[in-house]
């Protein structure tokens, strides 16, 4: 679920800012550099960021001769966007060569919502709330699957994409577990196959698929899945983990 708040910020998929009475779409941001700057400021908003660091985030090792002027222009245009939306709810403040993005305490940032959701799943499951865990995992998966700054590159962007991909895969695992717990093996099978298609070397997908097929009465097919798992790992000079072998033995037991 999404919580009541004064500002919602979306940096996964299409950029967007939602204020109480207005919104800012991706098209309103000042070009690709403006989108990069905004995403970097949001991700690092809890600390002051120096101009040199921002320049590196924008241009990597290829800063133009007029980098200072370009950065000033981008900051000015981002400030104008925030003022247009809600001057009392968000601000980009400068001090001694650094910038800080100030957002309300109750702001909801989609990437942070995904991170919180996937970290809450296990605690919710321990409380016995399977449906609640499923709902949180679905939220995490839907957000993380949107991607991050498509078409852009850079170390910090790739690092963020890796984080989102891990959230997405963890969420799929949690969704599949919840589907089995709710006696929906067909849905669990669908999720497991998506996991394997996304990362053929991630054993959790094979474990989930074996469990789903066994729960649906397809033990013979589950046995074939283990063979597929062994083949995929062997191609990478690896072998199934003890956990995967344990699940396989459980599948073999009627």
Structure description:
- With 254 residues, this protein is an alpha+beta fold.
- The chain folds into three domains: 8-106, Orthogonal Bundle (Arc Repressor Mutant, subunit A), CATH 1.10.10.10; 109-182; 183-254, Serine Threonine Protein Phosphatase 5, Tetratricopeptide repeat (Alpha Horseshoe).
- The protein contains ten helices and seven strands.
- It has helices at residues 31-43, 51-59, 67-86, 110-126, 130-144, 155-181, 185-198, 203-215, 219-234, 242-252, and strands at residues 8-10, 16-18, 23-25, 49-50, 91-95, 98-102, 108-109.
- Strands 3-2-1-7 form a four-stranded mixed β-sheet. Strands 4-6-5 form a three-stranded antiparallel β-sheet.
- Strand 2 (16-18) and strand 3 form a beta hairpin.
- Helix 6 (155-181) runs parallel beside helix 8 (203-215).
- The longest helix is centred in the middle third of the chain and has 27 residues, at 155-181.
- The protein is elongated, with a radius of gyration of 22 Å.
- The two termini are 39 Å apart.
- The mean pLDDT is 92.
